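Progress against Task 2.4 (sequence-to-structure conversion) is shown through the following example record, which the project officer requested during the mid-term review.
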Amino acid sequence: MSRVQLVVYAAVAAALLLVGARAIRGEAAPEPSFAIGAAAPKDGGFSIAGEGGDLVVHVAGAVRRPGVYRMPVGSRVDDAVTRAGGASAGAELEAVNLAARLADGQQVVVPARAPGGAGAVAAAEGPISLGTATAEQLEEIDGIGPVTAGAIVEFRDEHGGLSSVEQLDQVSGIGPATMESLRSQLQP
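Structure tokens generated for the chain above:
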């Protein structure tokens, strides 16, 4: 082989080693740490903004390792829960649409089971949980009819849960006046 061929082969080998090392390092990172508002680390670490084919989601609630995770585009809620160490023993996974696609900046909240195994607390006993309430339970609240209750459940399923009562203003049929009356009757 000529000297030029050796140099080309060495450069290609070095590039492959670097790409392989980055791939291995990316897979081996157990859970990324993010600093909101801070610049990206100089050592090639993670930044809060999604780049390339990735999106960033916040997994909270009844999971083993809540936190902010970088996920490939096209990932599902189930993938994010798995990345967060899986559901904890007291998780109410039936209240989360595990098949929903993730969106960049989304928060996935896995609610904990209510004491006694009930999915949601009755209105007479306290606020109803948006994360576990059925459409029928939501209809019991003044200001929520069957259509709005169905829209809330559909919105919750599409977005992997609701992290706050304020998210209801994104649901069709719920305006500012309804939001005010619902705040005391609902909890995330």
